[in-house]
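Quality-control log, excerpt.
Job 1 of 2 completed; input and output follow.
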Amino acid sequence: MGSPELHAPQVCTLQSLLADCGLSDDLAAAFAAKTTLADLRARLAANRPHLLAHVKELGIAKLPDRQKLANAIARAEKAGQMPAAALAALPHLRPPVYEEAEDRVSVRLKVPAGTTTHQLRCNIDANSVRVEYCGERTAACGRLCGHVLPSESDWEIERTPAPEYDPLREARDQQPEALEDTLVITLHKARAERWVSLFSDALSRRHEPPPPPPEDEAALALKRERQVLIDRRKHEMLYGKELTPMPPKRPELLRLEERERVEHQRRRQRRAELEAAHGDGGRGGRVQATGGACPTLWNAEEHWQTARATLLWRTGLARHAGAPEHPADCDPFYVWYEDAHAMVVRSSTARGTPATALKLQAGSNFVECFVRGVRSMWSGVLVGKIEPSSCRLEVLSPPSAEETGAAAAATVGACCDTLQLTLVKAEPRGLWLAPWPELLDAIEKRERSSAVLRDKPRREELEAGGWDAAQADDTWQLIIPFRSGGRLTHDDLRVGVTADALNVHVAGQQHAPLLGGELHARIDLARSSWSVRTAAPIGSVSVDEMVITLFKERKATWPRLFKRMYA
């Protein structure tokens, strides 16, 4: 008996697939004249619902017949019965990816590389979006699951950075050119509510952030072991104890730190490459719908580092007062008053307390207060840095109504003195808001809650035109107009700075700044300042202006103020 003859799989054609679906000869012939099998395969690989809609447009009206054709193509593809040919890339037919925020939705649709604004058409209505590429419907077409504001929505093309040419490689070994760019559509919601999906009648995918990398338990154990030694040494330094010598780092920890350093350098290099690719103009620039260049926008919630920031003192502010949280029917246990140069904390104490009963230990960023040998609650790490030699703890007699509260002055005035802690700031232009971080956390939580309840106006309600900036050799001056009056006072405004970033916002709204971003170079925080002045009204609307002066760390001419701005 001879060996069985081996047959190659039969190659399907469009006509054979249409015949297998049971279509009439006339309908099959008319359909085959309008399309090709390769086009249908590419559309099926990109988006099956879009293929079904496309087949309907070409003449097959019945849904069962369209589904039979799509299933037949998929089965033949899986069985290897399709012609061996490369499929056309149709990125604009793949379902778009969307990311949702409280007040907006960002939609990202892939398009062929090199797509121009003239090849795209984007229509945004109150409850629908339709995007066409070269006259053809894309996957970003459908009825939205919520309502948007078309006048405030926009779109732009985000270019994929071109690969860097390596002169040491042959032409065939160079990295291939990018095949896709990205169309980014920003939809502003009419109401702040969560959407179930992007479209109610089309496919889309919600953006899922990548999972965090798995934690290395051995590395964590090494870091915890070293941190315990560091914390013990800090405790000994803080309380003046004999310092225990630090043991040398274990070889495993040294290798781990070297690995992390290399990875950090690689991330910085990659970020620098992306920044260069996304700069103004060039192959990797961001292009608006109008075709002009647009600076890269970052999410302030992700990139503004609140823990590192310093709030600048407003010129003209006499002082800022505060107290810890307390019941409404009781006076606070103590109060504090802050001006540009010092933070003063006051409380009632027993009448006749001698100065010898007080003891103050102060460092550059902490204080320890003792009364009659007992450590008081006025102890711990401070919000800012101080001049230890200038700080003092003393007793004032008698207390005034301003110091203890009008209600308590009459009661405690005859039996109490005032205990006062004076902290002289090392950085005079900083605004602390509170002496200790735990008090500051409570204030920030209360401000964020006020922002959620809309007790203070939002950014959109305050905007009164654009902002202006001008630079000299050593300074930048910014002017930001805003609508004044109503629920907003000048004490509600904040100007936060780091050495290389700026965030101008309303208290509790640092993630939606009036103006902010990463600066082009470093600034001198100690000399920078800001103030508020009255501006000319716009019609019947009262307008004030924030005037911010930023001193450069080094005299130079910057090409622009911001590298990246916060959205």
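Job 2 of 2 completed; input and output follow.
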Amino acid sequence: MLMTILIAATMGQPGTVEARVAVARLDVVDRPADSGYVVATLTKGDAVRVRPGEAPVTGWLAIDPPGSVYCWVEAAALRRADPLRERPDAARVRTTTTIRSANPKAKLPGPPRGTLNPGDRVRVLDIPPLEVGESSPRRWAAVAPPTGRAYYVPAEAVEWAAPAEVEVRPTAFAAGGEDPELKRGDAMLLAETTAKPVEDWRLEPIRSAYEAFARQAEADPDRRRSVDGRLKQLEGLERAAAAAKGFVEAASKSRDLDASFARLERRIADAERERSRAFDAVGFVQPSAKMHDGRKLFALIGLKDGHVAAYLDVPPGLDALPLTARRVGVRGAARYDADLKARLITVRDLVDLEAKE
């Protein structure tokens, strides 16, 4: 961590830097965790703009919202702006309201991810509104993500784009390392060293970027000194990464067998405790037209794909309507129902998970 702070201090906080998706399918999520809500899916080769100055947690990169990303806001909380004074898609918030993540394939708004206050501006998108509920449906409007909002991808799922071939002109030199390609290399370095532990740093693409710029800057002594200083610093980081990797490998090989068994036993005990507290299903509650034994069923929408994960047989005395469009944990007896062609859960308990966030 100290090394990361020193990098940021010496290089400043660069802007975004382009990277490419390195895996066949990459889910973009609304928070840096495996449990984050999927807001978009990218494919190999797609470009992303990484925000190296916003390192969330180890293993994740903050990125600019991809072009397809939007959010949901209750339409009743918005007031369309005066088209003579503001752009026609502008709106203002009338009353404090929650902004929720969106997945184009989901039938319900996603989890809450922040609050909008009266007077805040939003940009309403040309996307059909979402209506939730039957007797008194709630209407949701699609809006652009708030300014400055970041989304997240696993660090190992992206790779740095190849350095651009640019013509270097000595008269265009800006003191303090303001050259776009140098700033790009600095941003790559900061993102790499803040998103991963030292032993997992991949510094080869960054060295290639600096060396490419060094070759282009042969005729400019000031530029060459600037990039040489960065290459010298990079050598130190490469030595640190190699040493850390060697230490981790050695430590892994020399683990005490008794300690390994003790850790395994603790993990098994922890898993059993978690299992006892776990729910039979988790998702978003939505009314449905399906019936079972004369009772109307509720649908449980999956968190990841927006499809029906199960139908809920809610007993009298347990009111599920107030939980519509909210993320809940379900406890009960589950079985496959041939008529429904889906899982049917006889509900014993419904827990509002959003109330705890």
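Post-run check on job 2. Residues 1-14, 164-177 have pLDDT under 50 and may be disordered.
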